[in-house]
Specification:
The protein has helices at residues 3-34, 37-73, 80-115, 122-151. It has 158 residues and is mainly α. The radius of gyration is 18 Å and the shape is elongated.
């Protein structure tokens, strides 16, 4: 596979990862703000599904394709922008793994509340706050990774 094709797939994968993450976060946050348990339950199901269909494959593909390109270019892993990208990606991943668990639990809680026609318990709202605040450093880290992808070879001030 050519470097150009790998790079194209890498960029498309990042767009899918970033877009799915941001879109899911927006729709889940808006559903939670509505307070409508049925809406929250359905949205939580869709967010979990989107993570399995789109986020998980791209989370796996991103470092593999990135490291493949680094190898094809003959760059050492100790190259500063490569190390910074990997560290930021690891930070985002460290935030994402608990978010996945929270999403699964919140989906379960919301579906149960909807089925029983009950309000969401305080536990759901605590988890939603954790989910939101874990997303902040993950989002910032991914924005920085994208910036490194774009500006890696430019001299400072260019």
């Amino acid at each position: 596979m050519s470097y150009t094709l790998i790079k194209t797939l890498h960029i498309l994968s990042m767009v899918l990862l970033f877009g799915t993450g941001l879109g899911s976060a927006f729709y889940k946050w808006m559903a939670d703000r509505s307070g409508v348990v049925a809406h929250i339950a359905v949205t939580n199901r869709h967010v979990v599904l989107a993570d399995w269909l789109f986020t998980t494959p791209t989370v796996i593909f991103q470092p593999l394709s990135g490291l493949w390109m680094v190898h094809l270019l003959g760059l050492p892993l100790a190259t500063p922008w490569v190390m910074a990208s990997l560290a930021l990606y690891a930070l985002a991943g460290a935030c994402w793994l608990p978010v996945v668990w929270l999403q699964l639990r919140m989906r379960q809680i919301a579906v149960a509340a909807d089925t029983q026609a009950r309000p969401l318990p305080a536990l759901y709202w605590r988890m939603a706050r954790w989910w939101f605040w874990l997303g902040v450093p993950a989002f910032i880290a991914m924005v920085l990774v994208v910036a490194l992808m774009v500006f890696k070879h430019l001299p400072l001030g260019a």
